[in-house]
Amino acid sequence: MILSMTGYGKASAVFNGKKITAEIKSLNSKSLDLSTRIAPAYREKEMEIRNMIASSLERGKVDFNLWTEKSDGTQAAPINGAVADNYHKQIRHISGQYGIPEPENWWGLLLRLPDVLGRDEAVAELSDEEWQVVRSVVAQSIEQLVDFRKQEGEALQHKFEEKLDNIARLLADIEPFEKGRTEKIRQRIIENLENIKGIEYDQNRLEQEMIYYIEKLDINEEKQRLTNHLRYFRETMANGHGQGKKLGFIAQEMGREINTTGSKSNEAEMQNIVVRMKDELEQIKEQVLNVM
User: How many domains does the chain have?
Assistant: First the structure.
């Protein structure tokens, strides 16, 4: 079963009145492009967290966020009195120096200034017990994302199977037109030659030229190779995840055979079928970019 590179996971836990939350999401990318935002209390473990993510996800544009908040919601951010007093003195001094009226709402002004409202970030040493809780939260969020990728991958595989079946059916629809066009070509050439008065031609040479011309329009090899590519695409999907790049290469080869078939199709009905095959393949190419 293939995996999608698109996914989302989120997990939380409470430790000593503090809610710890990890959120992770991913989109498609040629390699692992990992961006992290980690609460200051846990930054010493950033490399270990990155290794956890890299070993599980392998590819994708991944955004990871780890933060904390008070679980009871009752503790407010502390007011830094020393910073507020310093701002207050500076503003009064500047007001007197330049004759600018002092603010009427001192509190409203001071509380909006930088660093007056302190952030109660944990600065204590990270205990082993707390790290085990954090590690579990990170692992759960990654596990949720992997489960999401599996579900998306299953949906993608069903979509690919549908498109492959459509291409195979369209390829079979070409056969009736292919069989009849050889005789049409023969009759058209003979009729045109007969309409030219006073021209004699070598019947044997005519047959040789017709065989050469018809061989140039023959698409049996293209049909066989395209059928093989369809089968190989299915086999590759069955091999499991990590096959996205290979599926992309197979889709490119399928496109080559379909394009060659179109260039050899001198019947309007055949060309219409080829266009429909290209449309089905284009949808495969678009979605295969999301496969891990």
Answer: 3
